[in-house]
Amino acid sequence: MSKYVDSVLKDVKAKNPNEPEFIQAVDEVLMTLDPVLKANPQYQQNAILERMVEPERVIMFRVPWVDDKGIVRVNRGYRIQMNSAIGPYKGGLRFDPTVNLGVLKFLAFEQVFKNSLTTLPMGGGKGGSDFNPKVSPHTPGKRCSDAEVMRFCQSFMTELFRHIGPDTDVPAGDMNVGGREIGYMFGQYKRLANEWTGVLTGKGLSFGGSLIRPEATGYGDIYFAENMLAKRGETLEGKECVISGSGNVASYAAEKLMQLGAKVLTLSDRSGAIYVKDGITPALLKEIMNLKNVKRGELSEIKSKAVKFFPKANSWQIADKIDAAFPCARQNELDGKDADYLLKHGCTLVGEGANMPSTPEAIEKFVAAKIMYSPGKASNAGGVATSGLEMSQNSERLSWTREEVDAKLKGIMKAIHDNAWEAAAKYGKKGNYVVGANIAGFTKVADAMVAQGIC
Known about the structure:
The protein is an alpha/beta fold. The chain is 45% helix and 15% strand. The protein has 2 domains: 3-194, Rossmann fold (3-Layer(aba) Sandwich); 216-374, Rossmann fold, CATH 3.40.50. It is built from 17 helices and 12 strands. The strands form 2 sheets. It has a 7-stranded mixed β-sheet with strand order 9-8-7-6-10-11-12, with helices on both faces. It has a 5-stranded mixed β-sheet with strand order 1-2-4-3-5. Helix 13 links the parallel strand 11 (349-351) and strand 12. Helix 9 (216-230) crosses helix 16. The model has no long low-confidence stretch (mean pLDDT 97).
Protein backbone atom coordinates (compact mmCIF):
# COMPACT_ATOMS: atom_id res chain seq x y z
CA MET A 1 0.00 0.00 0.00
CA SER A 2 1.41 3.40 -1.01
CA LYS A 3 1.93 6.23 1.47
CA TYR A 4 -0.79 8.17 -0.36
CA VAL A 5 -3.42 5.45 0.05
CA ASP A 6 -2.36 4.82 3.65
CA SER A 7 -2.69 8.52 4.47
CA VAL A 8 -6.20 8.78 2.95
CA LEU A 9 -7.38 5.60 4.72
CA LYS A 10 -6.14 6.87 8.09
CA ASP A 11 -7.94 10.16 7.52
CA VAL A 12 -11.19 8.38 6.59
CA LYS A 13 -11.01 6.22 9.73
CA ALA A 14 -10.32 9.25 11.93
CA LYS A 15 -13.19 11.29 10.47
CA ASN A 16 -15.76 8.47 10.38
CA PRO A 17 -15.05 6.30 13.46
CA ASN A 18 -18.68 5.17 13.87
CA GLU A 19 -19.27 4.17 10.25
CA PRO A 20 -17.74 0.68 9.84
CA GLU A 21 -19.55 -0.14 6.58
CA PHE A 22 -18.30 3.06 4.95
CA ILE A 23 -14.74 2.45 6.14
CA GLN A 24 -14.92 -1.14 4.85
CA ALA A 25 -16.11 0.00 1.41
CA VAL A 26 -13.43 2.68 1.13
CA ASP A 27 -10.72 0.28 2.29
CA GLU A 28 -11.79 -2.39 -0.21
CA VAL A 29 -11.53 0.03 -3.14
CA LEU A 30 -8.45 2.03 -2.18
CA MET A 31 -6.37 -1.05 -1.37
CA THR A 32 -6.56 -2.10 -5.05
CA LEU A 33 -5.65 1.23 -6.66
CA ASP A 34 -1.86 1.42 -6.15
CA PRO A 35 -0.98 0.39 -9.74
CA VAL A 36 -3.22 2.99 -11.36
CA LEU A 37 -2.17 5.72 -8.90
CA LYS A 38 1.52 5.10 -9.66
CA ALA A 39 0.84 5.22 -13.39
CA ASN A 40 -1.20 8.45 -13.09
CA PRO A 41 0.47 10.93 -10.68
CA GLN A 42 -2.10 13.58 -11.61
CA TYR A 43 -4.62 11.79 -9.41
CA GLN A 44 -2.62 12.48 -6.25
CA GLN A 45 -1.72 15.98 -7.43
CA ASN A 46 -5.45 16.74 -7.72
CA ALA A 47 -6.31 15.03 -4.39
CA ILE A 48 -8.72 12.71 -6.20
CA LEU A 49 -8.90 10.13 -3.38
CA GLU A 50 -9.47 12.77 -0.71
CA ARG A 51 -12.30 14.26 -2.76
CA MET A 52 -13.84 10.91 -3.71
CA VAL A 53 -14.28 9.77 -0.11
CA GLU A 54 -16.14 12.95 0.85
CA PRO A 55 -19.78 13.25 -0.28
CA GLU A 56 -20.51 16.35 -2.33
CA ARG A 57 -23.61 16.80 -0.18
CA VAL A 58 -25.30 15.05 2.77
CA ILE A 59 -28.98 15.80 3.34
CA MET A 60 -30.69 14.67 6.56
CA PHE A 61 -34.25 15.55 7.53
CA ARG A 62 -37.17 14.55 9.74
CA VAL A 63 -40.16 12.70 8.31
CA PRO A 64 -43.33 13.22 10.36
CA TRP A 65 -46.38 11.15 9.43
CA VAL A 66 -49.65 9.96 10.97
CA ASP A 67 -50.45 6.27 11.46
CA ASP A 68 -53.89 4.67 11.13
CA LYS A 69 -54.63 5.32 14.83
CA GLY A 70 -54.06 9.04 14.38
CA ILE A 71 -50.72 8.96 16.25
CA VAL A 72 -47.94 11.18 14.94
CA ARG A 73 -44.75 9.24 14.13
CA VAL A 74 -41.33 10.66 13.26
CA ASN A 75 -38.58 9.01 11.23
CA ARG A 76 -35.29 10.23 9.86
CA GLY A 77 -34.68 10.67 6.13
CA TYR A 78 -31.40 10.92 4.22
CA ARG A 79 -29.95 11.55 0.77
CA ILE A 80 -26.22 11.18 0.15
CA GLN A 81 -25.16 12.92 -3.06
CA MET A 82 -21.71 11.39 -3.38
CA ASN A 83 -20.25 12.28 -6.78
CA SER A 84 -21.65 13.93 -9.91
CA ALA A 85 -18.50 14.04 -12.06
CA ILE A 86 -19.94 11.90 -14.87
CA GLY A 87 -23.65 12.60 -14.54
CA PRO A 88 -26.56 13.37 -12.20
CA TYR A 89 -26.59 11.50 -8.88
CA LYS A 90 -28.22 8.08 -9.28
CA GLY A 91 -28.96 5.48 -6.65
CA GLY A 92 -31.72 3.86 -4.65
CA LEU A 93 -33.79 4.70 -1.61
CA ARG A 94 -33.84 2.14 1.22
CA PHE A 95 -36.49 1.95 3.97
CA ASP A 96 -35.21 -0.22 6.80
CA PRO A 97 -34.40 0.12 10.53
CA THR A 98 -30.73 -0.58 9.72
CA VAL A 99 -30.48 2.62 7.68
CA ASN A 100 -28.05 5.16 9.10
CA LEU A 101 -25.51 7.64 7.79
CA GLY A 102 -22.64 5.15 7.63
CA VAL A 103 -24.63 2.51 5.72
CA LEU A 104 -25.86 5.04 3.18
CA LYS A 105 -22.39 6.53 2.70
CA PHE A 106 -21.03 3.05 1.98
CA LEU A 107 -23.82 2.41 -0.51
CA ALA A 108 -23.34 5.81 -2.17
CA PHE A 109 -19.56 5.30 -2.43
CA GLU A 110 -20.07 1.89 -4.07
CA GLN A 111 -22.69 3.40 -6.37
CA VAL A 112 -20.18 5.86 -7.82
CA PHE A 113 -18.04 3.04 -9.23
CA LYS A 114 -20.98 0.81 -10.13
CA ASN A 115 -22.59 3.58 -12.18
CA SER A 116 -19.27 4.38 -13.82
CA LEU A 117 -18.93 0.74 -14.90
CA THR A 118 -22.33 0.75 -16.66
CA THR A 119 -20.90 3.04 -19.39
CA LEU A 120 -23.90 5.35 -18.85
CA PRO A 121 -23.57 9.02 -17.71
CA MET A 122 -24.64 8.63 -14.09
CA GLY A 123 -23.07 9.87 -10.86
CA GLY A 124 -23.50 8.14 -7.52
CA GLY A 125 -25.93 8.71 -4.66
CA LYS A 126 -28.04 6.84 -2.12
CA GLY A 127 -30.75 7.60 0.39
CA GLY A 128 -33.59 6.33 2.50
CA SER A 129 -35.03 6.23 5.98
CA ASP A 130 -35.12 4.15 9.15
CA PHE A 131 -38.86 3.66 8.49
CA ASN A 132 -39.87 -0.03 8.46
CA PRO A 133 -42.91 -0.81 6.27
CA LYS A 134 -42.81 -4.42 7.48
CA VAL A 135 -43.70 -3.57 11.09
CA SER A 136 -46.87 -1.76 12.16
CA PRO A 137 -46.14 0.90 14.80
CA HIS A 138 -49.37 0.12 16.65
CA THR A 139 -50.27 -3.57 16.02
CA PRO A 140 -47.66 -6.22 16.92
CA GLY A 141 -47.17 -8.87 14.25
CA LYS A 142 -48.76 -6.73 11.52
CA ARG A 143 -47.28 -4.66 8.72
CA CYS A 144 -47.90 -1.00 7.95
CA SER A 145 -51.06 -0.56 5.91
CA ASP A 146 -50.93 0.77 2.36
CA ALA A 147 -52.39 4.04 3.67
CA GLU A 148 -49.62 4.35 6.28
CA VAL A 149 -46.94 3.65 3.68
CA MET A 150 -48.52 6.26 1.40
CA ARG A 151 -48.57 8.92 4.12
CA PHE A 152 -44.95 8.19 5.02
CA CYS A 153 -43.83 8.31 1.38
CA GLN A 154 -45.66 11.58 0.79
CA SER A 155 -44.03 13.17 3.83
CA PHE A 156 -40.61 11.82 2.83
CA MET A 157 -40.93 13.25 -0.69
CA THR A 158 -42.23 16.58 0.60
CA GLU A 159 -38.70 17.27 1.84
CA LEU A 160 -36.69 15.26 -0.69
CA PHE A 161 -38.30 16.79 -3.79
CA ARG A 162 -36.41 20.08 -3.38
CA HIS A 163 -33.06 18.26 -3.65
CA ILE A 164 -33.70 16.05 -6.71
CA GLY A 165 -34.57 16.42 -10.40
CA PRO A 166 -34.02 14.71 -13.77
CA ASP A 167 -30.72 16.56 -14.31
CA THR A 168 -29.68 16.71 -10.64
CA ASP A 169 -30.48 13.49 -8.78
CA VAL A 170 -32.67 10.58 -9.91
CA PRO A 171 -33.46 8.14 -7.06
CA ALA A 172 -34.73 4.59 -7.53
CA GLY A 173 -35.95 1.79 -5.28
CA ASP A 174 -33.84 -0.38 -3.00
CA MET A 175 -34.55 -2.52 0.06
CA ASN A 176 -38.26 -2.33 0.98
CA VAL A 177 -38.85 0.31 -1.69
CA GLY A 178 -40.70 -1.29 -4.60
CA GLY A 179 -43.36 -0.29 -7.08
CA ARG A 180 -45.84 0.71 -4.39
CA GLU A 181 -43.46 3.10 -2.65
CA ILE A 182 -42.05 4.53 -5.90
CA GLY A 183 -45.60 5.19 -7.11
CA TYR A 184 -46.54 7.09 -3.96
CA MET A 185 -43.34 9.17 -4.05
CA PHE A 186 -43.65 9.90 -7.77
CA GLY A 187 -47.23 11.09 -7.29
CA GLN A 188 -46.17 13.45 -4.50
CA TYR A 189 -43.23 14.81 -6.52
CA LYS A 190 -45.51 15.49 -9.49
CA ARG A 191 -47.96 17.23 -7.20
CA LEU A 192 -45.31 19.46 -5.58
CA ALA A 193 -43.25 20.26 -8.68
CA ASN A 194 -46.30 20.65 -10.95
CA GLU A 195 -44.60 18.71 -13.72
CA TRP A 196 -44.35 15.18 -15.10
CA THR A 197 -40.69 14.26 -15.33
CA GLY A 198 -38.73 11.04 -14.96
CA VAL A 199 -37.32 12.00 -11.59
CA LEU A 200 -37.68 8.49 -10.14
CA THR A 201 -36.93 5.15 -11.79
CA GLY A 202 -38.60 1.85 -11.09
CA LYS A 203 -41.96 3.42 -11.95
CA GLY A 204 -45.00 1.43 -13.03
CA LEU A 205 -45.33 0.67 -16.74
CA SER A 206 -48.44 2.84 -16.97
CA PHE A 207 -46.52 5.98 -15.95
CA GLY A 208 -43.08 5.85 -17.50
CA GLY A 209 -41.53 2.67 -16.15
CA SER A 210 -39.33 0.36 -18.16
CA LEU A 211 -39.85 -3.27 -19.02
CA ILE A 212 -37.24 -5.58 -17.41
CA ARG A 213 -36.56 -3.06 -14.59
CA PRO A 214 -37.80 -5.36 -11.76
CA GLU A 215 -35.82 -8.26 -13.23
CA ALA A 216 -32.71 -6.27 -14.16
CA THR A 217 -30.44 -6.71 -11.12
CA GLY A 218 -31.06 -10.44 -10.86
CA TYR A 219 -30.84 -11.02 -14.61
CA GLY A 220 -27.72 -8.85 -14.84
CA ASP A 221 -26.01 -10.84 -12.09
CA ILE A 222 -26.51 -14.03 -14.09
CA TYR A 223 -25.47 -12.42 -17.37
CA PHE A 224 -22.21 -11.38 -15.68
CA ALA A 225 -21.72 -14.95 -14.43
CA GLU A 226 -22.26 -16.21 -17.99
CA ASN A 227 -19.45 -13.95 -19.18
CA MET A 228 -17.10 -15.18 -16.45
CA LEU A 229 -17.85 -18.80 -17.32
CA ALA A 230 -17.34 -18.14 -21.03
CA LYS A 231 -13.74 -17.15 -20.28
CA ARG A 232 -13.25 -20.74 -19.06
CA GLY A 233 -15.27 -22.37 -21.81
CA GLU A 234 -18.17 -23.22 -19.50
CA THR A 235 -21.90 -22.46 -19.24
CA LEU A 236 -24.49 -22.47 -16.47
CA GLU A 237 -26.16 -25.59 -17.85
CA GLY A 238 -26.43 -28.19 -15.07
CA LYS A 239 -24.77 -26.02 -12.40
CA GLU A 240 -26.09 -26.43 -8.83
CA CYS A 241 -26.58 -22.97 -7.36
CA VAL A 242 -27.35 -21.47 -3.96
CA ILE A 243 -28.94 -18.03 -3.64
CA SER A 244 -29.55 -15.85 -0.60
CA GLY A 245 -32.49 -13.50 -0.35
CA SER A 246 -35.97 -13.84 -1.84
CA GLY A 247 -36.75 -10.34 -3.06
CA ASN A 248 -36.58 -9.14 -6.64
CA VAL A 249 -32.84 -9.64 -7.05
CA ALA A 250 -32.81 -13.21 -5.72
CA SER A 251 -36.07 -14.25 -7.38
CA TYR A 252 -35.15 -13.04 -10.84
CA ALA A 253 -31.61 -14.40 -10.53
CA ALA A 254 -33.24 -17.76 -9.77
CA GLU A 255 -35.62 -17.37 -12.73
CA LYS A 256 -32.79 -16.63 -15.15
CA LEU A 257 -30.68 -19.51 -13.82
CA MET A 258 -33.56 -21.91 -14.42
CA GLN A 259 -34.02 -20.57 -17.96
CA LEU A 260 -30.33 -21.29 -18.61
CA GLY A 261 -30.56 -24.86 -17.34
CA ALA A 262 -29.08 -24.43 -13.86
CA LYS A 263 -30.56 -25.88 -10.67
CA VAL A 264 -31.45 -23.46 -7.83
CA LEU A 265 -31.26 -25.12 -4.41
CA THR A 266 -31.84 -22.34 -1.87
CA LEU A 267 -33.45 -18.98 -1.11
CA SER A 268 -33.63 -17.14 2.21
CA ASP A 269 -35.12 -14.26 4.18
CA ARG A 270 -35.02 -13.02 7.77
CA SER A 271 -37.07 -16.01 8.96
CA GLY A 272 -34.54 -18.54 7.61
CA ALA A 273 -33.60 -20.46 4.46
CA ILE A 274 -35.33 -23.02 2.27
CA TYR A 275 -33.57 -25.95 0.59
CA VAL A 276 -34.97 -28.00 -2.28
CA LYS A 277 -32.72 -30.96 -3.04
CA ASP A 278 -33.96 -31.46 -6.61
CA GLY A 279 -34.08 -27.74 -7.34
CA ILE A 280 -36.74 -25.07 -7.02
CA THR A 281 -39.29 -25.38 -9.83
CA PRO A 282 -40.73 -22.47 -11.81
CA ALA A 283 -44.11 -23.13 -10.15
CA LEU A 284 -42.59 -22.99 -6.65
CA LEU A 285 -40.67 -19.82 -7.53
CA LYS A 286 -43.91 -18.22 -8.71
CA GLU A 287 -45.52 -19.16 -5.37
CA ILE A 288 -42.57 -17.64 -3.48
CA MET A 289 -42.72 -14.42 -5.48
CA ASN A 290 -46.45 -14.11 -4.79
CA LEU A 291 -45.81 -14.74 -1.09
CA LYS A 292 -43.10 -12.06 -0.91
CA ASN A 293 -44.47 -9.41 -3.28
CA VAL A 294 -48.24 -9.69 -2.85
CA LYS A 295 -48.87 -11.27 0.55
CA ARG A 296 -45.64 -9.78 1.93
CA GLY A 297 -45.05 -12.94 3.93
CA GLU A 298 -41.99 -15.00 4.95
CA LEU A 299 -40.47 -18.22 3.62
CA SER A 300 -41.40 -20.00 6.84
CA GLU A 301 -45.01 -19.90 5.59
CA ILE A 302 -44.34 -22.13 2.55
CA LYS A 303 -46.13 -25.47 2.74
CA SER A 304 -44.53 -27.96 0.36
CA LYS A 305 -43.17 -31.45 0.92
CA ALA A 306 -40.27 -30.69 -1.41
CA VAL A 307 -39.14 -27.73 0.71
CA LYS A 308 -36.98 -28.07 3.80
CA PHE A 309 -36.99 -24.96 5.97
CA PHE A 310 -34.05 -24.00 8.21
CA PRO A 311 -35.09 -21.36 10.80
CA LYS A 312 -32.78 -18.35 11.19
CA ALA A 313 -30.27 -19.91 8.77
CA ASN A 314 -28.56 -18.51 5.70
CA SER A 315 -28.21 -20.21 2.32
CA TRP A 316 -24.51 -21.04 2.44
CA GLN A 317 -24.11 -24.09 4.67
CA ILE A 318 -27.08 -26.26 3.65
CA ALA A 319 -26.37 -27.97 0.32
CA ASP A 320 -23.84 -30.80 -0.05
CA LYS A 321 -22.77 -29.93 -3.58
CA ILE A 322 -22.46 -26.33 -4.75
CA ASP A 323 -21.16 -25.12 -8.11
CA ALA A 324 -22.07 -21.46 -7.80
CA ALA A 325 -23.28 -19.03 -5.11
CA PHE A 326 -25.20 -15.80 -5.60
CA PRO A 327 -25.47 -13.61 -2.46
CA CYS A 328 -28.49 -11.39 -3.15
CA ALA A 329 -29.65 -10.25 0.31
CA ARG A 330 -27.63 -7.63 2.21
CA GLN A 331 -24.15 -6.42 3.16
CA ASN A 332 -21.74 -8.71 5.03
CA GLU A 333 -24.08 -11.71 4.90
CA LEU A 334 -21.37 -14.13 3.73
CA ASP A 335 -18.40 -14.48 6.10
CA GLY A 336 -15.14 -16.41 6.20
CA LYS A 337 -16.69 -19.61 7.54
CA ASP A 338 -19.34 -19.51 4.84
CA ALA A 339 -16.60 -19.05 2.24
CA ASP A 340 -14.73 -22.07 3.61
CA TYR A 341 -17.89 -24.19 3.35
CA LEU A 342 -18.61 -23.07 -0.21
CA LEU A 343 -15.05 -23.77 -1.38
CA LYS A 344 -14.95 -27.15 0.40
CA HIS A 345 -18.19 -28.20 -1.32
CA GLY A 346 -17.05 -27.41 -4.85
CA CYS A 347 -18.02 -23.78 -5.42
CA THR A 348 -16.06 -22.23 -8.30
CA LEU A 349 -18.17 -19.12 -8.91
CA VAL A 350 -19.56 -16.39 -6.62
CA GLY A 351 -21.61 -13.66 -8.27
CA GLU A 352 -22.68 -10.88 -5.90
CA GLY A 353 -26.21 -9.63 -6.49
CA ALA A 354 -26.32 -7.53 -3.29
CA ASN A 355 -24.12 -4.60 -2.28
CA MET A 356 -20.94 -5.75 -0.49
CA PRO A 357 -22.50 -9.03 0.73
CA SER A 358 -19.14 -10.75 1.33
CA THR A 359 -16.94 -9.80 4.28
CA PRO A 360 -13.28 -8.90 3.63
CA GLU A 361 -12.24 -12.31 5.00
CA ALA A 362 -14.57 -14.10 2.57
CA ILE A 363 -13.33 -12.04 -0.38
CA GLU A 364 -9.73 -12.82 0.54
CA LYS A 365 -10.50 -16.55 0.51
CA PHE A 366 -12.28 -16.40 -2.85
CA VAL A 367 -9.47 -14.42 -4.48
CA ALA A 368 -6.80 -16.71 -2.97
CA ALA A 369 -8.63 -19.77 -4.30
CA LYS A 370 -8.71 -18.13 -7.77
CA ILE A 371 -12.37 -18.94 -8.31
CA MET A 372 -14.60 -16.75 -10.46
CA TYR A 373 -15.63 -14.03 -8.01
CA SER A 374 -17.44 -10.85 -9.06
CA PRO A 375 -17.92 -7.93 -6.64
CA GLY A 376 -21.39 -6.40 -6.41
CA LYS A 377 -20.34 -3.10 -7.95
CA ALA A 378 -19.82 -5.03 -11.19
CA SER A 379 -22.26 -7.93 -11.22
CA ASN A 380 -25.26 -6.21 -9.63
CA ALA A 381 -25.04 -3.12 -11.84
CA GLY A 382 -27.87 -4.38 -14.06
CA GLY A 383 -30.50 -2.67 -11.94
CA VAL A 384 -29.01 0.80 -12.13
CA ALA A 385 -28.12 0.23 -15.79
CA THR A 386 -31.78 -0.42 -16.60
CA SER A 387 -32.72 2.59 -14.47
CA GLY A 388 -30.46 4.56 -16.78
CA LEU A 389 -32.32 3.07 -19.75
CA GLU A 390 -35.60 4.13 -18.11
CA MET A 391 -34.22 7.67 -17.83
CA SER A 392 -33.42 7.62 -21.55
CA GLN A 393 -36.90 6.42 -22.45
CA ASN A 394 -38.47 9.14 -20.27
CA SER A 395 -36.31 11.84 -21.87
CA GLU A 396 -37.21 10.69 -25.37
CA ARG A 397 -40.87 10.02 -24.48
CA LEU A 398 -40.43 6.47 -25.81
CA SER A 399 -41.14 2.99 -24.52
CA TRP A 400 -38.85 0.18 -25.67
CA THR A 401 -39.94 -3.44 -25.98
CA ARG A 402 -38.93 -6.11 -23.48
CA GLU A 403 -36.57 -7.59 -26.06
CA GLU A 404 -34.91 -4.22 -26.73
CA VAL A 405 -34.29 -3.54 -23.04
CA ASP A 406 -33.07 -7.07 -22.35
CA ALA A 407 -30.65 -6.89 -25.29
CA LYS A 408 -29.28 -3.56 -24.04
CA LEU A 409 -28.93 -5.01 -20.51
CA LYS A 410 -26.99 -8.01 -21.85
CA GLY A 411 -24.73 -5.67 -23.79
CA ILE A 412 -24.07 -3.48 -20.77
CA MET A 413 -23.26 -6.47 -18.53
CA LYS A 414 -20.83 -7.79 -21.15
CA ALA A 415 -19.18 -4.37 -21.37
CA ILE A 416 -18.84 -4.22 -17.57
CA HIS A 417 -17.32 -7.70 -17.53
CA ASP A 418 -14.92 -6.96 -20.38
CA ASN A 419 -13.82 -3.60 -18.92
CA ALA A 420 -13.11 -5.21 -15.54
CA TRP A 421 -11.26 -8.11 -17.19
CA GLU A 422 -9.13 -5.80 -19.34
CA ALA A 423 -8.31 -3.41 -16.48
CA ALA A 424 -7.16 -6.30 -14.28
CA ALA A 425 -5.00 -7.71 -17.08
CA LYS A 426 -3.51 -4.28 -17.86
CA TYR A 427 -2.25 -3.92 -14.29
CA GLY A 428 -0.97 -7.47 -13.89
CA LYS A 429 -3.98 -8.99 -12.08
CA LYS A 430 -5.54 -11.06 -14.86
CA GLY A 431 -8.80 -12.72 -13.79
CA ASN A 432 -9.12 -10.64 -10.60
CA TYR A 433 -12.50 -8.96 -11.00
CA VAL A 434 -12.16 -7.09 -7.69
CA VAL A 435 -9.11 -5.19 -8.89
CA GLY A 436 -10.44 -4.87 -12.42
CA ALA A 437 -13.86 -3.48 -11.44
CA ASN A 438 -12.36 -1.02 -8.95
CA ILE A 439 -9.79 0.32 -11.40
CA ALA A 440 -12.17 0.50 -14.37
CA GLY A 441 -14.82 2.29 -12.34
CA PHE A 442 -12.33 4.59 -10.62
CA THR A 443 -10.39 5.81 -13.66
CA LYS A 444 -13.45 7.08 -15.54
CA VAL A 445 -14.61 9.16 -12.55
CA ALA A 446 -11.08 10.29 -11.67
CA ASP A 447 -10.38 11.49 -15.22
CA ALA A 448 -13.63 13.48 -15.24
CA MET A 449 -12.76 15.06 -11.90
CA VAL A 450 -9.30 16.08 -13.12
CA ALA A 451 -10.78 17.57 -16.29
CA GLN A 452 -13.33 19.61 -14.33
CA GLY A 453 -10.80 21.22 -11.99
CA ILE A 454 -10.95 21.55 -8.24
CA CYS A 455 -14.66 21.49 -7.47
